[in-house]
């Protein structure tokens, strides 16, 4: 179906327009045209009612949603449920994230995402392997007993991924620089996290091809005046990315603001680190046999350890704007254009331009998601 979206404010990922219409057809953006241009009978008119259209949001760290934890349900149907749970909060593209687990589970996760992409499950574009090549000292809620060293066989397994953009979080002090370079050269997006790496070890990994950092500040060596650690290296480096959780719990709002101000524009990415509770009425779940409860936007084990977040991406966007004093459009970029660039898909996603995939969201004055489009297919959301 050909659609003409009119009577809107249009944010194309760069600029905001009040006198433009968006043309969609065959799952793509056909063009952005002047509202004054004549109407074609080929296009169905959709009056947006003055609300904002923006690029669909992209979340690089989604452990679960809709009552489903990816580690526990490595199927196409489970991925469909997770993606649908996040779509109502503006995420039109996600990386299902596998927490540290066995090689068999890693293989099954890669296969499930590959099959989901082949089946064109709306919203599934790749995979994030968060582990198992991490440092037990900074395990967070991961199972240290499942962490292990990376070897050639592990690299070959990940290199063989056909699961779309593949992000791998590892502790660089536990992995040889040669293996990081090999992964990077094969197209794997390597981020550092769950790591005790020194500043010097982190710099060495960046030089080897590591491209970013997972949930900045959480589960990594902190920045101190005489020991910058991984956090210091992440903030100093101008070319790498970092993901950051804007729930007000994983990172204090003031620290969030400092980090965004310190980093090169375009390199700070919003992530949710979402758990099964997002988009679900069920606010308790088990993680490797440990009871977890969601409350106040965060997930906690019985001993008070943070175990992911209970927020959707549009909440992260709103929080980012509040915490760091960002205008809403820069906060939206942190959840769309910038993650698209980090994944190397910014020629398809993150903008509303001719030839791009028709992934977009409609937002009301309070930044609530009213509708979403994935490859041109529209869905209504209620709040």
Q: What is the element layout, followed by pairings?
A:
Elements: E1 3-6, E2 9-11, E3 16-17, E4 20-25, E5 28-34, E6 44-47, E7 52-55, E8 57-62, E9 64-65, E10 68-69, H1 76-87, E11 91-99, H2 103-118, E12 127-130, H3 152-159, E13 166-170, H4 177-185, E14 189-192, H5 199-208, E15 212-213, H6 229-236, E16 241-245, H7 253-262, E17 268-271, E18 284-287, E19 290-295, E20 298-301, E21 306-309, H8 313-324, H9 328-333, H10 337-343, E22 360-363, E23 369-374, E24 377-380
Parallel strand pairs: 1-6, 2-7, 8-11, 11-12, 12-13, 13-14, 14-15, 15-16, 16-17
Antiparallel strand pairs: 1-4, 2-3, 4-5, 7-22, 9-10, 18-19, 19-20, 20-21, 22-23, 23-24
Helix pairs in contact: 1-2, 5-6, 7-8
What does it look like?
The structure is a single chain. With 383 residues, this protein is an alpha/beta fold. The protein has two domains: 3-54 and 351-380, Urease, subunit C, domain 1; 57-343, Alpha-Beta Barrel (TIM Barrel). 26% of the residues lie in helices and 27% in strands. It has ten helices and 24 strands. The protein has an eight-stranded parallel sheet, sandwiched between helices. It has a six-stranded mixed sheet with strand order 3-2-7-22-23-24, with no helix packed on it. Strands 5-4-1-6 form a four-stranded mixed sheet, with no helix packed on it. Strand 23 and strand 24 (377-380) form a beta hairpin. Helix 1 (76-87) crosses helix 2, helix 5 (199-208) crosses helix 6 and helix 7 crosses helix 8 (313-324). The model has no long low-confidence stretch (mean pLDDT 97). Belongs to the metallo-dependent hydrolases superfamily. NagA family. Zn(2+) binds at residues 130, 194, 215. This is N-acetylglucosamine-6-phosphate deacetylase.
């Amino acid at each position: 179906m050909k659609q003409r979206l009119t009577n809107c404010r249009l944010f194309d990922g760069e600029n905001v327009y009040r006198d433009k219409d968006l043309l969609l057809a065959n799952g793509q953006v056909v063009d952005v045209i002047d509202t004054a241009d004549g109407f074609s009978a080929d296009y169905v008119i959709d009056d947006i009612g003055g609300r904002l259209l923006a690029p669909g949001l992209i979340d690089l760290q989604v452990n679960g949603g809709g009552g489903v934890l990816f580690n526990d349900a490595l199927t196409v149907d489970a991925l469909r449920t997770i993606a649908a749970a996040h779509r109502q909060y503006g995420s039109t593209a996600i990386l299902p994230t596998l927490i540290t687990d066995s090689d068999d589970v890693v293989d099954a996760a890669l296969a499930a995402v590959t099959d989901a992409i082949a089946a064109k499950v709306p919203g599934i574009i790749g995979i994030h392997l968060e582990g198992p090549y991490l440092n037990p000292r900074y395990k967070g809620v991961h199972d240290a007993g499942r962490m292990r060293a990376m070897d050639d066989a592990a690299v070959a397994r990940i290199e063989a991924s056909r699961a779309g953009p593949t992000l791998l979080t590892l502790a660089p002090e536990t992995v040889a620089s040669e293996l990081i370079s090999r992964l990077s050269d094969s197209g794997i997006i390597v981020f550092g996290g769950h790591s005790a790496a020194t500043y010097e070890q982190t710099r060495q990994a960046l030089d080897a091809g590591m491209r970013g950092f997972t949930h900045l500040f959480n589960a990594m060596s902190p920045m101190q005046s005489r020991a910058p650690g991984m956090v210091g290296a992440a903030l100093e480096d101008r070319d790498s990315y970092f993901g950051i959780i804007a729930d007000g719990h994983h990172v204090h709002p003031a620290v969030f603001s400092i980090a965004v101000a310190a980093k090169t524009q375009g390199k700070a990415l919003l992530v949710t680190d979402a758990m099964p509770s997002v988009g679900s009425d069920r606010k308790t779940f088990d993680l490797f046999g440990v009871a977890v409860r969601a409350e106040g936007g965060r997930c906690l084990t019985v001993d008070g350890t943070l175990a992911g977040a209970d927020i959707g991406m549009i909440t992260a966007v709103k929080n980012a704007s509040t915490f760091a004093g960002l205008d809403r459009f820069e906060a939206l970029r942190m959840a769309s254009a910038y993650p698209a660039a980090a994944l190397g898909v910014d020629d398809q996603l993150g903008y509303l331009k001719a030839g791009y995939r028709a992934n977009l969201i409609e937002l009301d004055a309070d930044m609530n998601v009213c509708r979403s489009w994935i490859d041109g297919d529209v869905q209504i959301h209620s709040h």
